[in-house]
Design a protein that fits this description.
Helix content: 25-40%
Order of helices and strands: HEHHHEEEHEHEEEHHHEHHH
Largest sheet: 4 strands, antiparallel
Low-confidence stretches: none
Mean pLDDT: 94
Shape: globular
Number of domains: 1
Number of helices: 12
Strand content: 15-25%
Structural class: alpha+beta
Number of strands: 9
Strand order of the largest sheet: 1-2-8-5
Distance between the termini: 61 Å
Length: 307
Amino acid sequence: MQKNIDCLENILSDLNSISCNAAIFSIVHIKEVQDDIEYFLSKGFIDKNLYKDDLEIYFKFDWEKVYKKAKSVLIISIPNLAACVYFDIKGNTLKTVIPPTYIYKKAEEKVKNILNKNLPSGSYVDIKNMLPLKLLAVKSGIGKYGRNNICYVEGMGSHFRLMGFYLNIQTKVDSWNDLRMLKRCKTCTNCIKICPTKCIAKDRFLIRAERCLTYFNESEKNFPSWIKKEWHNALVGCMKCQEVCPENKNFTGKSEVDFYFNEIETTKILKNKSLAGLEDKTIKKFQDLGFENDIFIISRNLEALIK
C-alpha cells in the first residue's frame, strides 16, 4: 500500500507542476454515476433521443469490460484556452474561435508522459469519452457546475481540458462528493440571457441539451430551420455563455494557439468538405487542430459564419 501511496503522490506532484488539478476516487463509484444518468433520464431531464443517438454509444459504465484490473479513477483538469482560427476570404480575414477543450493533443501528451514516468506499463487506461467526465470532475471535487452545465475549476474557469484514467492502483484516497453548483450562479443570469437557443432555464438545473447550439454544430446533420444564421459564433461549439460568465473574466479573449488558412486553402475547404483535394500543408493544420476527420463539419460551420 505504501508503494501505491508514494506512486500517487509523485503523480499528483508532477501534475501540479504543470498546473493541473487532480482527484482520485474508488472504482465503485462508477455504478453511482450510471445510476445518476438513469435517474436524469427517467425524470426527463435528459432528452432520451439525444442520449440514445449521441451518448449511449460512447458511455461504457461496465468498467470491467474496458479494464478488468481497474481499482481507482484519476480525474485531471489541465489548463486549455480557446484557439483562434483565421480564414482569408474574398480579400478579408475572418477570425473564428474554437472553444476550450477541443484542441488538446499537447495537453494530453504532457499528462500521459507523467503517467508513463510513474506507472508500470499497462497499469492505466484512458477513459476519454467512455464516461461523463464533467460529472466525474464535479463529483470528485475538482470542479463545480455552472448554471450552463459547464464544469468550472477554480483558477481555470471553464478554460481547461478534462482527462480521466482507470488505474490499477488500490488507494485509501476516495474523493467523492455530492453535485455542487457555483454559488454565483444562484443570482447570476448572464448565460440565460445570452443563450441564443434558450436551452438554459431558470426553473431546472440541467440545460435542454437537445436545443444547445453546440449539439447541432458538432453533428453532421443539417441545421434545423429554427436555428438563425446570426446565432453561429464559433467554428465548432458555442462560446456565448462562456464569454459572459464572470468566472471566465481572466480568460475571455485569450487564445492558446492561432491557425491561419490563406484564401486558396479557404476556398478548397468550402468547396471540398473533405480531405480530398486539400494540400498536405492544409491537412497538417487540420491534424494539429485535431479535426482531420471532421472537415465536413468545419466547412459547414465556416459557411454559417460567413456573413
